[in-house]
Amino acid sequence: MTDPSTPRTPYHFDVIEAGAAFQELRPELDAIPPAEFTAMNSDPATGASIALGSVSRLMALREEIVVQLPLFEIRLLDQLHKYAYAAWYADIMSLPASSGQSEEQALLAEGGVLRETLLIGAGPLAHRRLLDPATIEAIRSGSGPKDTAADLVALGTVYTNNWGAIDGKTIVTRAEVDRARVVGSLLFAAISVRETPPSALPITPEMRVRAFTALDRTYGKLRRAAQYLRGDEADTIAPTIRPQAPRHRADGSTATSPAPAAPAESLAVRSAAPPSAGAPIGGGSGPFQR
User: What pTM was estimated for this model as a whole?
Assistant: First the structure.
């Protein structure tokens, strides 16, 4: 099994580092007013994986952001990986606990088949450079239950990020991609809950919303910075963290809905409060406001 302290791709998470990031950001998460909770109409684990995979590309714009948008909070870029870790950790740790070893084994069996299917499908796509060959090879190197869980989330994220380019060119179906992300999250939750000290559990559904709200805010500001600096190229640099994504239902099934969707009024699904007006950050034409 690979060293868990060294993620094999930008889309792989380390549960220990994720837990530390969550605890570090906890005061900020606690301070978010419920009226400002973001709409939970996409899968937080997928969104966190997409954001984490975007860190290096956004970091390449750091100097330009500092120069051209001097009032932008650059700490948001420097800590983006922590917001992604915290949102992923809160999502994983708030999932319902598995009913036992048999359920975990069933997830592992299904996940193994899905992982093999997506890796087989990724081979020709990577050969044609429609998927990044180095990322696919790094995912292929994994072994063991925890790697299987992480690989499913990573593969689901890679396929989702590139679906516009590969749709119709692969034997893999979108349903298999969505199911891989769900099974990966559930399997990671089962393993993490079993291995995490009881004092670290549980994380409430409300805290899951708070952590995703913090990531959504942070990533949204960074996407606007990328759009200001790179125009349409920004969607490649920082893809949306709200792709069509499966949501976990109480009965274990999933639903897929386009994002954004009209949010329902509930604790877990709230409309984000509109930003306050103010002077644009970075001069007279910047995309940010105080």
Answer: 0.67
